[in-house]
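Case study.
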Amino acid sequence: MRIGVLTGGGDCPGLNAVIRAVTKSLIHQCGAEVLGIEDGFLGLIEGRARPLDWRAVSGIVATGGTILGTSNRANPLGRDDTLAAALRHAREWKLDAVVAIGGDGTMAIAHGMTQHGLRMVGVPKTIDNDIEGCERSFGFDTAVAIVTEALERVQTTGQSHGRVMIVETMGRYAGWIALEAGIAGAADAILLPEIDYDVEAVAAVCREREQRQRYTVICIAEGAKPRGGEMTVERRLDDSPDPIRLGGVAHALRAQLQPHLKSEVRATVLGHVQRGGAPTPFDRVLATQFGNEAAHLVLRGEFDRMVTLVGAHLASVPLERVAGRNRRVPLDHPLLTCARQIGVSLGET
Ligand code: F6P
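After joint prediction, the assembly is written out as follows.
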């Protein structure tokens, strides 16, 4: 048996732990040969891959990034010639199946490739925790830990200077990172893409704290927007399957709040520090379980499916159910209720 492994889309802490677990599980359980495809689907199109043996995946459980490289621009399905090249390489390499580790975009491509005869298994990755059908993706816990630390750090400097400190998180169109880190890092206001914020309501929180505690910490997700306003787009990547890059809403909020307040307002955009570096132990364990489960799907011949976590249990869902979808924070989520009940503002009136 010969199995390809690739990582697609943006990177995420825990990718190497998955690559390691898929490879070791397949070698250990059935003596399979594993081929690491470089730079995601780009390597499949361009014919770049290298063998992964026990030694190649040793010592990487705790390392950030992906040893295989990744690309968020390559889509073999985009043109006839790229599709033909990808299928030709899979044939030449005698691949029985490919394990694709990625987000919703990668899952959409993986599902598309199965329609052309390539047997695929998906593993969900994203710090955003926004993959449909998966309650928790690896990388999320690490990102939440980094944002939590950042909130704690801006809190002490904000307190010293009597400032309003705004911290912007990643997360695309879902507010999971901001919500969990905001609660863990004791933010006074948490602003999410799922609930448009009212500028005056946020200003009122800051004014009240100006009297009482001198400082305010606001955790805002990059996809948040004011009532009646638009999301803040940082750039467009027209050759990417996911062309919009959000970013900069913290600066927009700073400009909206400052005229209403005596205290100085400062903004910090955390950006890629949330995605780099070592995964937390929780993410290493989850990534290892996902990789091992992906190997099981391959061995059982269950293709066109993605490994998932439902409750505390590993399961799998059809790729079709996941492809191109987003899992946002439901408006009746218990954490939203909990935040409101302990006096955290969600920017509502
Ligand atoms: O999906 C993961 C993510 O980090 C998002 O939170 C963020 O909006 C996006 O990727 C950034 O992508 P890039 O690294 O291409 O700028």
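Observations recorded in class. The radius of gyration is 22 Å. The CA atoms of residues 38 and 100 lie 12 Å apart. We will return to this complex in the next lecture.
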